[in-house]
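Agenda item 2: nicotinamide-adenine-dinucleotide complex prediction
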Amino acid sequence: MKKGVLKKIALVGTGFVGMSFAYALLNSGECDQLLLIDIDKVKAIGEAMDLNHGLPFAKRNMLIYAGEYSDCHDADIVVIAAGVAQKSGESRIDLLKRNYDVFKSIIEPIIQSGFNGIFLVATNPVDIMTKITLELSGFSPSHVIGSGTTLDTARLRYLLGDYFSIDPRNVHAYVIGEHGDSEIIPWSQAYITTKKVYDVIESSKGRFSFEDLQKISKRVTGAAQDIIKAKNATYYGIGMALVRIVRAIFGDEKSALTVSIYLNGQYGINNVYAGLPAIIGRNGIEDIIVLDLKENERTAFINSCEFLKQTAKEIGF
Ligand code: NAD
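Presented output:
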């Protein structure tokens, strides 16, 4: 990313997730240009018009327009939130295969445009779609990032903040592994301000309990299904998580976020994308934080990665 040059984001997929991201981006004023692309061109044009009408009320001016893959050549970040929904009776693997075809139709023309920035993927199953993006783009793993467990981590921090009556921004706890059913919360690494969650519970004289932590775990893992049951889809939280990652990149923040990263020997695992805290800056993934996990947490993390590896293998990755 060139210093002093306009910051440009291309968003592919102007559905619920894509547009929640775009709306949050408009409100936070994180970039100078926002390019919208969708297979449904009319929708992308309509979304650009709608956002543009918010500009007079926005924090700063921005150029927002609907365009083509060739317009990605000078983008700093391409965010992908395009995908197809599961058809009734369709298996997870068949859905994955269809989303692979969607990604092929997106990534190849982006690479042909001369794009040389950072890919940020939100489409589910996000860990596998990010690996597919790595393979199709031929980019360095530091420049191919998945939203991973950023949203799950936010859900955990919100629930812990509520439970311990503390600002969620002062909760330091992570969800790692698959963005999905096999994800884990390493409680040994969870802090409320500067105190270990374990110690806070033990010194609370019964006010807080380990049983409640288990209930919180279930609520984190089940959050997406609960929201889908109530309103069919989840999008505001992920939209804000994507803006948070973009801000860390543009601001060269060196922030620790639980994005989906390419494991290359960490915990003895290779060739898989999974959620782990990583340092995010102008060069994408700048470092991976290896957590000092307890044996059971380590085993659960490895199992989660193995599950992702097997699933990717079933579609040839
Ligand atoms: P949506 O159906 O509202 O939007 C998908 C968009 O992709 C549509 O506008 C569609 O026209 C577009 N699209 C489909 N095929 C395309 C193609 N070949 N090229 C370009 N655009 C194409 O869906 P949504 O609710 O916005 O969800 C999008 C994705 O985000 C899903 O995979 C969903 O599971 C995922 N998601 C991820 C997280 C996360 O934490 N990573 C959270 C919520 C949802």
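Discussion summary: The mean pLDDT is 95.
Owner for follow-up: CH.
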